[in-house]
Amino acid sequence: PVVCNGKSAMFILRSQRVLFGDQEITASRFEQLCGKGDAKKWKSSLWAADADGEPDVAMGDWLSSRNLDKAALAKLISNWNAYELRQTWEQQQQEKEQQQQETDGEGVEEQQDDQQDDHHQQQQDSDAEGDDQGTDADAATPEPSGRAESSIGDGATADGATTDADEVTDV
After folding, report:
1. Using CB atoms within 10 A of its CB, is residue 86 exposed (0-12), middle (13-18) or buried (19+)?
2. What is the pTM (predicted TM-score) of this model?
3. At 110, is the pLDDT very low, low, confident or very high (cuts 50, 70, 90)?
């Protein structure tokens, strides 16, 4: 915890930001909100708080006592920025995957709808063809071919030829 001009917050070392209320802001911004913006030296304006929440030691001194100089702080902030970039990238990838799955799902549904529409249209076309031919039984019966006998029974075929039975002579 840190204190600046009587206001308490939580210092996040890795990002060098301050959690103030429900906002994560820079240490400089917290310094401004606390009325110490003119100082422009958050390491002097922010104080590490003791267990009772009272200012104990200036942040600059607290950081130095832990061997966190400018170079170490620069590495921390660089790592934090890289981490945030990675988090953002992963979130974008997940969103893209979700959009792709939704798009793929819509495509499958559209294909199924199209297939149902095609089947329904084919059924209607088939029904319409049956209506055009009428109900005449002769129209539905295929034309005779070859030497099949007619139903007359006289030995003549549908094409006028005679059957082998006509060639039989009486004895």
Report:
1. exposed
2. 0.50
3. low
